[in-house]
Amino acid sequence: MNFSTVKYLLLFILSAILFSCEENPLEIDVSQVKVGLKVKRFEQQLFSYEKITDTEVNDLTSNFNPFYTAFVENIINVGKADDPSNYYYLNSFIHDKNILQVQADCDSLYADFSIYEKQLIEAFKYYKYYFPNKTIPDIITYNSGFNYAIVTDSTYLGIGLEMFLGASYPAYKQLGLPQYKTRSMTNKHLTASAMLGWMATEFELEEERADLLTEMIHQGKLLYALDALMPQEEDSIKISYSEVEMEWCDKNEKQVWFFFIDNNLLYTKETKEIIKYMGEAPFIQGFPDGSPGRVGHWIGWQIVKSYMKNNEKLTVADLFNEKNAQRILDASKYKP
To answer: From CA 294, how far away is CA 315, in angstroms rounded?
Structure first.
């Protein structure tokens, strides 16, 4: 290899490094950030019991409260946690043959949770970096019998493993769940879904009757948070789109934005209109073929990305502290 070749090779490597840094401004070093993340396997303990009596309930309460109370009263909704008559329902739940099969499948896929634990620890390191005064929750896994994928409290982040068993899991079809929902019910989506659920409850939309722009910006903030907390994750995983849907959004971004502008939709507070562009759906009625549901989330994400790119001194915390969607749009200089 002659000197000229070496010179161009070094220039190429340097260019690649600079390009990589430009493409990933959120890829920061958090190796020195310490988080005391704990993972508790509630479902493993619950289904290990032959019979639930006072002893088992005391055990679950001491090890998992306040989650145990929420599980009984809200997640599987069988009554008050301190009511002994609920033992009958809890025993029925852990001995139901269908639930037991689901639990066996959870045990098979998630016997080793260390991969996801590492992903969650890494994400919460970024979270701690951006929000140093925020609480780091315990991670609690559970089986809710297809009731809730993610539940949160001030001290825990609960993950319903039965909701992440794979897009083609037979029970999902039996339950009548549509494909546009089940395709993101996979182990690849587990960590991103959990982090999105945590951010959504930590930073709730405070405005009671928000307009479409405010809703879009809010969801855009949450997706940008995933950019910050999981900088190496694929965008399609963050927003739960297929690659084809991502391509559609990239190709039609300008048309979608000007559709909102031309039809005076940004400031509408009509529930029907907001649901049309923000709600779960296989497609947007009246849009060209291939349009994904929740396209307002995606547009809001692009606006927030532009806002942060054009205001480089702002931190992720600053983004969430800015409550005015119009100011974010104006300062974003968003021009698809």
So the answer is: 26
- Note down pLDDT in tens along the chain; length 336 residues: 443 444 444 444 444 444 444 567 899 999 999 999 999 999 999 999 999 999 999 999 999 999 999 999 999 999 999 999 999 999 999 999 999 999 999 999 999 999 999 999 999 999 999 999 999 999 999 999 999 999 999 999 999 999 999 999 999 999 999 999 999 999 999 999 999 999 999 999 988 889 999 999 999 999 999 999 999 999 999 999 999 999 999 999 999 999 999 999 999 999 999 999 999 999 999 898 999 999 999 999 999 999 999 999 999 999 999 999 999 999 999 999
Question: Residue 232 and residue 328: Cα distance in Å, rounded?
Answer: 25
Amino acid letter at 175?
L
pTM: 0.91
Q: Which amino acid is at 148?
A: Y
Long-range contacts of 150-154 (CB under 8 A, 24+ apart): 150/193, 150/194, 150/197, 150/198, 151/70, 151/74, 151/75, 151/197, 152/197, 152/198, 152/201, 153/66, 153/67, 153/70
Distance CA 60, CA 94 (A): 14
- The helix (H) or strand (E) run that includes residue 157 is strand 156-160
Q: How many residues does the chain have?
A: 336
Rounded to an integer, what distance in angstroms lies between the CA atom of residue 252 and that of residue 310? 22
Is residue 254 within 8 Å of 264, Cβ to Cβ? no
Contact indicator for 1, 97 with CB cutoff of 8 Å: no
User: Can you tell me the distance from the alpha carbon of 153 to that of 169, in angstroms, rounded to the nearest whole number?
Assistant: 29
SS3 content of the chain, % helix, strand, coil (to 5): 60, 5, 40
Please give the structure tokens belonging to residue 65: 């409260």
Of 313, 298, 124, 136, the C-alpha closest to 228 is 124
